[in-house]
Fold these 2 entries.
Entry 1:
Amino acid sequence: MRIDGCSDIEDPAPLAQQAAWQDVEPIAQDDGPSPICPIAYTDEYREMMGYLRAVMAAGEESARALALSGRVIQANPGHYTAWVYRKRLVEALASDIGAELDWVSALSAKHPKNYQLWHHREALVERLWPARAALALPEDQRLANPVLRRELQFVGSALDEDAKNFHAWSYRQWLVARYELWAQELAFVDTMISQDVRNNSAWNQRYFAVLRGRPATTQLDAALARAEVAYAVEHIQFAPNNDSPWAYVVGLLLRHAPAALHEELLPRIRALAADPGFAPAMSSTPFYWSALVDIHEQQARALPPAERAPLLDEARAICDRLATQVDITHNRYWRFRKTAVGA
């Protein structure tokens, strides 16, 4: 298989016919004497793998081994053993990292959701500009560095192609956290959410950016919690039946600012539900009522046990409403949820 932009195949002839490989005895795959379901490999792939096993077994670190690993990866991009070997070869041969990044970029254009190539890219970037050296500089200077500029542009282009590409978002999280590029991330996420308010991946990235890699026990200060509530409610108004901002703000506050659930979020969403322009949509979306269950339950937890009953009863009543009127499809879930209120 040939990938445009990848330059590992200099001689298309079978390896057994190439002078450069005459000293290597390929190692065939051992499927045992009676394989139940042998894989129907092509002759070309079977031959490449035989030679790859041989050079790996010999511990060979050479340009020809690097080229062969590239051929195998182009034929089977999910071959993680070939990727591990290629990473070792790139390091041992002190290969041109820029050229290797170009190779990975060409491959990712055809296989944008391949785990291995994104992890390989992480290793290349770290080798090209180690985070330890980068973090000695202020963030604005890190952002101006051509290595990080290139990577942010690359992953941005990948997300332009598919705004919900989990692998691209995961790589962006690695890049931002590894090089501490927090200052620009909320602006980027805001752009992505503005383009598609239902992009749950972008909302997930906002959660990541707000926490800035801090521990799960981190508590947000009141001003930040208030700002995130305002941001989420503003986007709820665009599409009240879109669960992304609801899941974002309720999840964020439950974990990192529980008091803000009833102090900041509750009055805002109640006001929205009372607004004639939004009341029909709010009353019919399960996400509004689900948020009320979480809010009342959390609010009750902050009270002495003897004072919790009214709020917990209200949460249970809302579960009944969800089960019988608003979200009948998930009737059994809401009946279960009712039994868990206050537990």
Note: Confidence is low (pLDDT under 50) at residues 1-5.
Entry 2:
Amino acid sequence: MHSHHSHSGSFCKHAAGTLEEVVLEAIKKGFKVYGLSEHVPRYRERDLYPEEARFGVENLGKQFDAYVAEAHRLKEAYADKITLLVGAETDFITDLDSSALHSLLDKHEDNIEYLVGSVHHVNERPIDFDRDTWQQCLSSFSAGPADGMDLDDEGEPPYTAYLSSYFDSQFAFMERFRPEVIGHFDLCRLYVPLMRFNSPKYEGVWAKVERNIDFAIGYGACFELNAAAFRKGWKDAYPGEDVLKLIISKGGRLVLSDDSHGPAAVGLNFHLLYDYMVRMGVRDLWYLERHDERNVAGRKIRAIQYNGDWKEDPFWSQFGPELERGV
């Protein structure tokens, strides 16, 4: 089986363990293809997370360079046991991140094999660090003070502007970089997982969701089914049911990701991911592989459809017979 999105304590300050420990655990769990995708650097001191503040912007850049080198060392060292893909998870805070990513990709050339295109900030504020900072982000779209704003009321006016901004950023990033994997498509509702984008309360939002899905499918992107949502308290993976139904109906390509942040999270909750896919009627899975010809983004990688019934893959047997029945 496959996973396309992971982090380690070696190169991510909010993760644990070394990159090699993550790789060894992926081998132990029986992954055939495992994507390494540490975060690209951020370029303003104000955008650094608390655990990064003492490290500084310049050192984050050096850390990413060290990641690329170590990932390729591991790729070669364990080539007889697992296929490692060396990628990067992106972010889009301001145009500075966009121009800097162009430079980063030029610098590393084919050593960055694919991109996980993610958005973690809206209106230059983080949306998944904690609930307080997410609320600050929401408040930035409100005409009045945040005091008294009921975050459990899905009809509050800031939601429409907030969601629209998120999906516009996602679309702009896809237009510029054509990421091979669309990372946690609906991260914007992390703290309100029951929110449904097609509600008439969020005027115009569903149209943006559909626009983004159509564009990604048009250039050949894959949408990750991301198991990290389960450890965040969701009953679904990312993306949630409404978005996943739309992707499936349009023939979008789906890949798997654990979004691990250390060896303990490698393959974590894949049994729940299996159940979610069965419940949602997922028939086809895809995975990435190196390829001699360049794709539309200029990278030497392509998506391959899983051959056969993914539910019959021996990988799933580690989770017990109840999983094999899809219950």
Note: The chain has a mean pLDDT of 93.
